[in-house]
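Subject: Sanity check before I submit

Could someone independently write out the structure tokens for this chain? I want to compare against mine line by line before I put it in a report. The sequence has 269 residues.
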Amino acid sequence: MITTAAILARGLGSRMKRDSEAAGLDAAQRERADAGIKGMIPIDRPFLDYVITALADAGITDVVLVIGPGPSVIRDYFVHEAPPTRVHVRFAVQQEARGTADAVVAAAGEIGARPFLVLNADNYYPTPAIRALAAADTAGVVAFDRDALIADGAIDAERIKQFAVLSVAPDGTLLDIIEKPGDALDVSSDAARWVGMNLWALTPALVDACTRVPLSTRGELELPQAVRLALGEGTVIRVVHSAEPVLDLSHRHDIANVTARLRGVVVHT
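---
Independent answer below. Compare away.
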């Protein structure tokens, strides 16, 4: 079983920062949104508290937060203000925001040569999916049902185009991943049934691919591209299917929905 998870919290939060919509945000939420620190947006408690609670509920005991260099509100909060008691929190520094593959390499430098989970700081994932992914010490990914994301997660079809689409083999392993397909793919088609929300179990082979992946057309070192590189070299990646929703905190207008959906969830980090 995998007991370590790396949360990618180094992102710049560009979409959150440039959103003009501010209706319904309180002063604290607006401050964090303006700074693009999505994981620390208060949903009663900072959003990351909910993410870490879900990890702890799934059996994760060690959490590595990937952050940027210099002063960090994330580090200050988890070290001084509210240190977790169910998980051990430590930090990996990604010197530049060069993409998710580069963030994985930074996390692996702290974790070492053993499997670990990787997830976003701005998504709240269902605990059963995390638990199923962590159940084996092998490479894996959670494939979320597109229709469940739209119906239960308040994620519209247009946003699906900005995620990743997974192609799954009959034996339950990953065939391919298409990152941000945009209008090149009909998101209502069978080919777009399974969506990747960046919830992975990584092994040293996948970390190694992250060290070698070239820059994407978006000018970043991207984890999905590293996955495609590893697939081409014969790495087997198991797929865990989930029909539960993921809460996405990418834009300011997501905050109200996420707040409503997490109301009543007990935080216990």
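---
OP: Matches mine. For the report I'm noting this point. The chain has one domain: 4-262.
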